[in-house]
Amino acid sequence: MMEIRFTLLLLVLLLVGCNSKQDEAVPIDDTSTQELSYLTHAPASKRTWLTLNHLQQGEYSQPSPIHNSYFMPIDAELTTLDNFSGNLTMKETKMLGNGPEEDNRGKGYLFFPGFTTDFYTQGEHFVPVKQDIIYSTGYDSFWGIILSPGKIWSEADDQGWLRVAFPFVLTDKLRSQTHNGIATFLFDPTNNEVSKFRFQVVQQTASYFQYHFWGQLDLLFNNESSEDFIAHKAMFNQYLAALPNIATWQSLTAAVEEDYVNAIVSDPNGADYSAIGLHYNDTLYLQACPTPYGDFPFCAQMRQGSFSAAKSMGAGMLLMWLTQKYGEEILDDVVTKYLPIEADHNQWDQVTIQHLIDMSSSIGELGIYPENDMFSDEYNEKTGPWTWATSAQEKLDISNSYSHYSWSPGEVFRYRTVDTFTLAAVMDALIKQKEGNDVNLWDRFTVEVLNPIGIAVLPAIHTIETNGTRGIPLLGTGLFPTAIDTVLISKLLQNKGVHNGVTLLNTSVTEKALAASTMHSLPSFNDNSIQNDNINYRFSFWLIKGTNMDCEYWIPRMAGYGGNFINLLPNGVTFFVYQDAFNSDFLVEAEKIANSLSPMCP
Question: Stretch 532-544: mean pLDDT, rounded?
Answer without folding.
Answer: 96
